[in-house]
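Customer escalation, tier 2.

The customer says the design service returned an amino acid string that "doesn't look like it belongs to this structure." They asked us to rerun it and document both sides in this ticket. The original structure tokens are below, unchanged.
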């Protein structure tokens, strides 16, 4: 359930950045860094779609998977924990790539992007803990 709640926080951040890209939010509230420079750079678009929208899709998918893993039907399914590790691991890798672009190429940092990166790292750690707990809980016959 913690993964589901954290994914909702990430969804909020991604929606905020996407609404900015759509022109609905006029200026980004950014107390640290240069969010507008990052979000107006050519690297803020992937396959013709704003990175923020990809973030929205990612967090919706992660929320769905995390929520499903709490249900009776999927809660005991051994595939859920590895799927959550894979999803959050992908988020960590993609966030690391975007952070590299911010620091090394764009030369600006976006506080909202940092928040998203921290969220996916925390969610990845929680997913790994859940996976290990599930494996440790299984006993093998002697």
């Amino acid at each position: 359930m913690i993964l589901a709640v954290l994914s909702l926080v990430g969804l909020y951040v991604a929606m905020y950045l996407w609404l900015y890209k759509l022109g609905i939010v006029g200026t980004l509230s950014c107390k640290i860094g240069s969010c507008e420079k990052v979000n107006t750079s050519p690297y803020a678009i992937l396959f013709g779609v704003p990175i923020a929208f990809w973030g929205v899709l990612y967090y919706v998918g992660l929320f769905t998977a995390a929520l499903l893993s709490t249900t009776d039907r999927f809660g005991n399914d051994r595939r859920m924990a590895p799927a959550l590790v894979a999803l959050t691991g992908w988020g960590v890798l993609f966030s690391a790539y975007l952070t590299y672009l911010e620091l090394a190429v764009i030369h600006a940092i976006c506080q909202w992007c940092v928040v998203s990166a921290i969220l996916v790292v925390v969610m990845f750690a929680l997913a790994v803990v859940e996976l290990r707990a599930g494996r440790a809980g299984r006993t093998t016959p002697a």
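Tier 2 assessment: The sequence is consistent with the input. Residues 138-142 have pLDDT under 50 and may be disordered. The beta strands are 45-46, 49-50. Sent an explanation to the customer and offered a walkthrough call.
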